[in-house]
Amino acid sequence: MTAPCVPGCSPSCTTCAWISCAAPASPPQPLDERIPEPGTRPTQSDALELADLAAALYRLPEEQRAVILLVALEDMSYDAIAQTLAIPRGTVMSRLFRGREHLRRLMAPESGVTHLRVVP
Question: What's the confidence (pLDDT) of residue 78?
């Protein structure tokens, strides 16, 4: 059982799992069974992209990571996130914008992230 990401959060919150295992000194944890299977069979490059995304998420500041995960995984509205985190709606929007921009920079090929070439 992990600590809730915010006060009053449900014990089954998937965001808590992401935030609690995101300690800077620890390596990224493997994706768990809660992620639904995609319609097509994933390729090796899909798995690498997911691993790169998980690593990039762990490199974000906790405030940005929490907002991104609440929007993306929990499908919460900006107002619900603002109420949950006890911050203004504008702060939610700002953290989401800055977090997405940071993720884009981290995921860009020129950011030094090693990508394997697909050999036909």
Answer: 94
Inside any domain, residue 25 = no
For residue 52, give Cα distances in angstroms to 30, 49, 106: 12, 5, 9
Instruction: Give the phi and the psi of residue 53 in degrees, each rounded to 5.
Output: -65, -45
Indicate the angle between helix axes 62-72 and 89-107, nearest 10 degrees.
100
Average confidence (pLDDT) per 10 residues, the chain, 120 residues: 57 61 50 60 75 88 93 92 94 94 84 57
What's 67's domain CATH number?
Answer: 1.10.10.10
∠ at Cα 37 (34, 40), nearest 5°? 165
